[in-house]
Amino acid sequence: MTTLVIGGAGYIGSHVVRLLLEKGEEVVVIDDLSTGFEERTKGADLVRLDITAPDAADRIAFHLKASGADSVIHFAAHKRVGESVEKPEMYWHDNVGGLANVLEACATARVRDVVFSSSAAVYGVPDVDLVTEDIETRPINPYGATKLVGEWMLADAERAHGMRTVALRYFNVAGAGWPDLADTLTLNLVPIILDALEKGKAPIVFGDDYDTPDGTCIRDYVHVLDLAHAHVAALEYLRGEERPHRVFNVGSGSGSSVLEVIDAVSRATGETITPQIGERRAGDPARLVCSKDRIAESLGWSSEQTLDDIVRSAVEARRSA
Ligand code: WQD
What we know:
Mean pLDDT: 97
Strand order of the largest sheet: 3-2-1-4-5-6-11
Radius of gyration: 19 Å
Number of helices: 10
Order of helices and strands: EHEEHEHHEHEEHEEEHEEHEEHH
Strand content: 15-25%
Distance between the termini: 32 Å
Helix content: 40-55%
Largest sheet: 7 strands, parallel
CATH topology of the largest domain: Rossmann fold
Low-confidence stretches: none
Bound molecules: UDP-4-deoxy-4-formamido-beta-L-arabinopyranose
Structural class: alpha/beta
Number of strands: 14
């Protein structure tokens, strides 16, 4: 089996590439290396290509045919929520336009199976304890909106071209499956805390007056290697007969507060951390924890690693960098 991984030089993509290679699958990576690293794709063929370029659909189709790929996993997209609010056109153009090129290429090359990186950002600020896939989707920023539209595009491609697709709605991804595949961007809580500690600064908690047990926001943290396994399970699901669903949450199903994450970092580093309590950040739901039932039932996947495992792996990867 050959899989084309678009965005395979990035943080999550490179974990999936390595897992597929370890399973003995052939992997071709397409990446423009704008945020990814070539050395993370060792063992796969790397094609440097901007999927938003005017001729991208033809070029992707060429590589699909040349490699004989039978499935595509599509990661390549912008993922900064704040940036998406400031530069919405860039998000619509690149995230949606890039996906349109990928789907057009799949149709041309007659590739049937596509796995797409979606996000819990499609839900917005849901007022439920556990988020199931069928609650209303109400994204509150352009990033989340482009992911939701991406899911609709997959549904259209299924109808038009007989494709089979899965959208994985990631919750809060962190950690490292291999030390050389660490999250190098300081966009999310765990790398932000580690970065602050390295600089001798106190991490900032965005509000401690939420209606949660310790007053800080609760999220569902999932280990990037567990998430990578979910992609492999999604490919197997697409290759099978029964396909009752095409959208799945990917999370642990349990929540951790910001202060609990900071405590986990303290345990992993051995450092005493005294965070600074800051203002609330606009658009933050108090609690965002997924229901994991659907993915467990349909894909046979559930996360295995705890918050301590996640944070420890992130600390170790940073130390070895
Ligand atoms: C986690 C928690 C913050 C930084 C985002 C996207 C989402 C998805 C995952 C891609 C929150 C708090 C953070 C800090 C803090 N991305 N925090 N101090 O916002 O849950 O989700 O990443 O698909 O779409 O929205 O993740 O890591 O920014 O924050 O207190 O310096 O940590 O308020 O409660 P978020 P995050």
